[in-house]
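Journal club prep — side note

Before the paper discussion, L.F. wants everyone to see what a predicted structure for a comparable chain looks like in token form. Sequence:
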Amino acid sequence: MEKESMCQPTNEEPPQNENAPESSLNPEEPKKSILKKDEHGYVVNDDDKDKRLAEAQAMADTWCCGLLGKEPIKSGRELGVWETSLEDQSDWISWILLSYLNPMLKLGSSKVLDVDDIGVPSEQDKSRDAYERVKVAWEQQIRKTQAATAYRLAAQERQLSKCRTEDQKLKLAEKYKQQPPLDPSLGLALFQAFGIWKLVVGMLVYLISQLMTFVPVLILEDLVRYFQSTDNTPHTPYVDPWVEVFGLLLVPFFVSILQTRYQVLVAHAGVFVRAAISLLLYHKSLKVSAAGRAKTSTGQVGTL
């Protein structure tokens, strides 16, 4: 009898673990969302957070594009970067403030930029134009060096012809041999090709920006003396104090603009020099003679 009672089925439910989560107690019940407070104290749902952020971004894009009457940009090709670079498309105001980069930055905030979004480089950064200008300047340096060498040799011949004894000729010839040869200057060719006036303007812009950094210090010193002045020790400011206050706001703004323009100029100069020298070395490696190739290894050419 005891065995039969043990084998009979029972309607009693198995004991449940009080510490088990609700989802394990009721497997058929859908999973409930976990609510918690964000950094501002509002109750949010983790499951819908990403969805709401995406919807808010889409609403913001739609609202902004609706005001401007434009569709949201999805690729850099829509900006025309494969026809002309953004810098070449800009007017003088956006060129100074670098605001022509705003569409690309906006696109980069919504997706990962790829090669299709970058487009063509600026006209002044193209390697073909850089190589052609440096090649012309380098050939001019070679011609000037050859002319200066020929003039030096002619002057030496005239000096040797004036010598009366062989000892004087030998001493003078030995002196001429010790003179260093004249070589064309690649650095000067690069400066001339890029534009010496650009470098001069860049240095002036940098110098003015550095001098303007002292202006806020002088203004602050003048304002402190003005507020510390009394009837017994009056102080007359340089200009009206309100003008100096506005100067504290405007001067750093102009300093940042000047320094940014200088950095952009230096970046263009670096790209120009790298592209020009790379093409010069490449064309030179194609014209190396058999004797030169025998003295040069493949690794040296690859390093160049």
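L.F.'s comment for the group: The chain is about 65% helix and 0% strand. Keep this in mind when we get to the figures.
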